[in-house]
Amino acid sequence: MSRVGIGYDCHRLAAGRRLVLGGVELPSELGLEGHSDADVLTHAIIDALLGAAGLGDIGEHFPDTDERYRDADSLQLLASVVTNVIAAGFQLENIDATVVIERPKLGAHKHEIKTRLAQAMGLDPERVNVKATRGEGMGFVGRGEGVAALAVASIDPCA
Ligand code: MG
Description:
Helices cover 30% and strands 32% of the residues. By secondary structure, it is of the alpha+beta class. α1 (40-53) runs parallel beside α3 (74-87) and α3 (74-87) crosses α4 (110-121).
């Protein structure tokens, strides 16, 4: 029987940081603050996969107190989580994710983001869906203070 997991993450926007979403650096005056590259989308997907497999959460696997993960490439963390999920006896079915961001618009970058994420997970890009929506001026996203992401992962036990 299929198993599903959810993931949620948010990071604060700050000057002097890069804006990396799904491993793709986007043109932006502000970037995301965090211990790693602060790739909020990839972090949400990692938590969704860990949740589906019953393997805990991102903070347990990659503590932000651990110097090994300073400025870490989150796509590499994602790839290692996929290895763990497969080792636990599962195969990935599909990922669906939403980025909640005021600017920039993600439309022009969605294909590249989806392709990079799929590559990191060893998945057909057709099994990865990335959506974007705005905060409509409300809350921390709407005020441009941060970016949030949500993800759902579906996995199947290997026969
Ligand atoms: Mg995070």
